[in-house]
Amino acid sequence: MSSNSLINLPADSAARSTSVPWYAEQLEPNQLAEVKLFFIQYSDIRPDEVEAHILRARDAAWSISPWPCIGEFWFLTFSLSRHPAYTHILDTLRFQSHNDPNPPYKLLDLGTCLGQDLRKLAYDGAPIPALLGADLLDFEAAGHALFRDLDRFTRGHYIQGNIFAADDDAEDKLLKTRGSWFFVHVSMFLHIWPLEQQEEAAANILKLLKKEPGAMVIGTQTGTLTAKNDKLEPPFCRQGEEKYVYRHNCESMAALWHRVADAEGVKVDVWAGWNAEHHQKMEKIRREVPYEELSDAHREQLDERKVVFSVTRV
Ligand SMILES: C[S@@+](CC[C@H](N)C(=O)[O-])C[C@H]1O[C@@H](n2cnc3c(N)ncnc32)[C@H](O)[C@@H]1O
């Protein structure tokens, strides 16, 4: 979907309706089971209150912007912790001073929304001064309400800014941080735009990185076996409007970063692969369930994959 379609929505926009397919009324039992302990331990919520708490916090976030990642509870997925580079990232952050208010190795979660990946890093032992989120919209209070951690992720860990801010935009708070991040994480971010805008965003993401070997962009996003433009349908665009987002496979994702890094004169190593767990699940369905027996939703998802990537300065 195009980000512009879900930002500054009129109050009566159809995309705000909870009848849209990407608003789930309830949590799936496995979604709750996977995060229950986290909310008990990290957020100090009583076990019997976790579900109602998540539903309430989700609806508050939905009223800010009805992103599918909010309606479908994607914000309960710790996608960074499933990235093959997670142990390296966590160790780099963890093995530095926990008392330094401005540590040398910091991670920016760009397009952070409710900030679940930052909370997971903190839970796993990364120092909180090294963890910041940035988003175009102001989800800071909604993140605090969900994770009940204003005592730990104090104000200043959230940057409101625009990855498309012009180079001479003196007001944009994200742009001011260019060159200061050892890690920039992007989850479910680039895929919200057509290819040309993804390239523009990727170039600006590279500018956020420190000019040091080892500095990395890491990410996960929705992709597909055969890279292609996907046409948006209302309410993600206006009736009759022709809008597309670009869905990558591993090769096109890697090619995008090589192209952008070359154009920016930045030397990088690039890796892209499928999220293995999701890929195996979809291949099993393809092998074992006859096509005629698949629901329409499953048929549509058969080629869908999660693309995971890392781009490392050399
Ligand atoms: C699909 S959500 C993904 C949220 C989160 N990373 C996750 O995985 O749950 C995309 C996020 O990017 C933010 N966003 C959209 N356009 C942006 C821009 N131009 N600059 C910064 N953030 C933007 C949205 O507000 C939204 O929170």
From TrEMBL:
Give the matching InterPro entries.
Meroterpenoid_MTases, SAM-dependent_MTases_sf
Classification via PANTHER family: METHYLTRANSFERASE AUSD, METHYLTRANSFERASE DOMAIN-CONTAINING PROTEIN
The name this protein goes by in its record: Methyltransferase domain-containing protein
Taxonomic lineage is:
Eukaryota, Fungi, Dikarya, Ascomycota, Pezizomycotina
